Amino acid sequence: MTESKLTKPEIDAPSGPAPAELEIVDMVVGDGAEALAGSTVDVHYVGVEYETGEEFDASWNRGASINFPLRSLISGWQEGIPGMKVGGRRMLVCPPAQAYGPAGGGHNLSGKTLIFVIDLLGVS
Predict the structure, then answer these.
(1) Which residues does the UniProt record annotate as the domain PPIase FKBP-type (predicted)?
(2) Residue 36: inside a domain, yes or no?
(3) pTM for this predicted structure
(4) Does residue 68 lie in a domain region?
(5) In terms of DSSP bridges, do strands 89-94 and 55-58 run parallel, antiparallel, or are they unpaired?
(6) How many CB atoms lie within 10 A of CB 16?
(7) Residue 5 has what pLDDT?
(8) CA 47 → CA 6, 76, 93, 94, 106, distances in Å?
(9) What is the pLDDT of residues 66-100, one digit of tens each?
(10) What is the CATH number of the domain that holds 65?
């Protein structure tokens, strides 16, 4: 595992309408191992609601990164993390279809466009 030199990002509420498609923006390009679709990733992340900029989750707040098999995550992460390299920071803007589905879907974030800033610390 690589220790990130990055600190918890601050995410401002964007202006304008939420995107209809997944947006992927590299904020820092890593130079380590590349995440593949079948990888298990070790990440630090912050998630906020697009409309309000309100943070709903952050591994940083728990003081520890999280290990996930990509195939078990929301489709925005499954599509947005492969190709990312360890040491990188990427922002994903996930419309409801790539997050927790349409409003009324049973999750408290259903129907919401979500922004994640993800630091890739390791892949396996």
Answers:
(1) 38-124
(2) yes
(3) 0.93
(4) yes
(5) unpaired
(6) 6
(7) 62
(8) 16, 12, 10, 10, 19
(9) 999 999 999 999 999 999 999 999 999 999 999 99
(10) 3.10.50.40
